[in-house]
Each structure stands twice: as structure tokens, then as C-alpha cells.
Amino acid sequence: MNVPTSQVVLGVLALAAVGYLNYQRIENNAQAATIAQLEKAAEISRTTISSQANALAGIKQLQLQVDALNTSSLAAFQSIGAGTAGLATELQELKRNDQSIADYLRGTVPVAVGVRWQRSASTDPDTYRQASGAMPANAVPTPRARADPGQ
Q1: N or C: which end of the chain has fewer CB within 10 A?
Q2: How does DSSP assign 15-46, residue by residue?
Q3: Residue 137: partners with Cβ closer than 8 Å, 6 or more residues away
Q4: Which of 130, 110, 111 is nearest to 120 (CA)?
């Protein structure tokens, strides 16, 4: 059985073509799988980048709020400091006044004040009122018994 060389060559070429096509199909499938994996990775990366951008925006917003809080806190501390200095001055003034008032109250009663509040030595209401020059103790008449108790 002699097979012509051309048929052998054609057979070998056909087998080579089938093998090459099979290789290309396997290679294409591998490349498609790699492309699918890369697309999934790219989608994950896009999602990650989006969430990181949102997180950064939130952090920037928080930073602005913290800056505003720091500014208001500093203003409050400065106001408290100024108020504390004012209170310290007022406290010193109060201590000085308190000391002078305490010294005044420990001293004798001035004549002008003493005369105003002077009381008579008597404990009898009639003489007490008359001595002070005010209304007499019996200025209001005593109630009389009614003629008709039903009224």
C-alpha cells in the first residue's frame, strides 16, 4: 500500500490544522477567562475607589466640622478667660467692699440712723406709741356689742 506523498502531506497538514485550531480554541478560552477575571478585578477596583472617595469626602466633612468646633471652642476659652479675669477683679473688689462693710457693721451706729430707729425704754404700749410721736395705741375704737346678734 503505497500512499502518495501528497496525501500524506495533506493528512499531516490537516492534523496540524486541527491541532492548531484546537490549540487556538484552548488559548482563546484561557484568554477569555483571564479577561473575565480582569473585568471582575476592575469592577472591584472601581467599587473600592468609589467607596474610598466617599470615605474621603466624609473625612473632609468631619475635618471641617472639627475645625469649626475648634474655632468655637477657642473663642469660648478666650471668652471664659476674659470672664475669669473680670471675675477675679470683681472678687477682689468684693473682698475690699466686704471688708469695709464688715468694719462698718462692727462699729457704732451713726447718729442719723440711730435716731430713726430709737425706741422708748417702756414696754407699755400706750406710752410706747406716745413717746414715738406716732398714732396713739387707742386710735381705733374698741368694738361694741351688737344689739341684734343675728345681723
Answers
A1: N
A2: HHHHHHHHHHHHHHHHHHHHHHHHHHHHHHHH
A3: 125, 126, 128, 129, 130
A4: 130
Could you give the CA distance from residue 52 to residue 58 in angstroms, rounded to a whole number? 10
The predicted-structure confidence for 18-41, as pLDDT tens digits, reads as follows 888 999 999 999 999 999 999 999
- Cα dihedral sign for 33, 35, 41, 43? negative
- Digit-coded pLDDT (tens) for 101-126: 888 777 777 777 666 666 666 677 66
Residue 129 CB burial class (10 angstroms; 0-12, 13-18, ≥19): middle
